[in-house]
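thread: overnight batch results

M.L. [08:02]
morning all. the overnight job finished for the chain we discussed friday. pasting input first so we're all looking at the same thing
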Amino acid sequence: MEPQTIYDGRYTLYPDSSLFDNQAGTWVDPRRAPRGVYQHYYLCASEGAYRVSIHLLMLEVFIGPKPPGQEGRHLDGNRYNNHIDNLAWGTHQQNADDICRYGRIGRNGHVWLNTDQRHRVVQLYRLGKSVADISAVFGASRNPIYRILRRAGIPLRHEYGPKKKRV
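M.L. [08:03]
and the structure it wrote out:
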């Protein structure tokens, strides 16, 4: 696919989701998404500035307008992979199935990780990554990461120093 010029020629959007600001002559950095929020860009247009989810922008520019009753899907379950080959419009059920298939969020809304991801948690921890960093990678809170490490028999490091005794 060819890069597309958007917002009255102000920006050029590429199929790998990179964005170039033609007016400023610089690349636009995607904003890191906090837990529960997708990556986004802040774009300036003649009407003002807008926060735009990258996956939805990619779909609308390269695939077409959002069909009624459809939502953006990350086909590999990774919300940070906004390459156009990984995106599609689909139903809510298809999106939920994608998320569950790749070990992001269970049907009850709790984060769960598949076997490969649990092994990766242990591997990252053994390589010296903190529980906070690992939880950010998988979009989980620290509790399931600690639970995975305890069940694997991994001795936990004191990352925040010893607890202070109450007087």
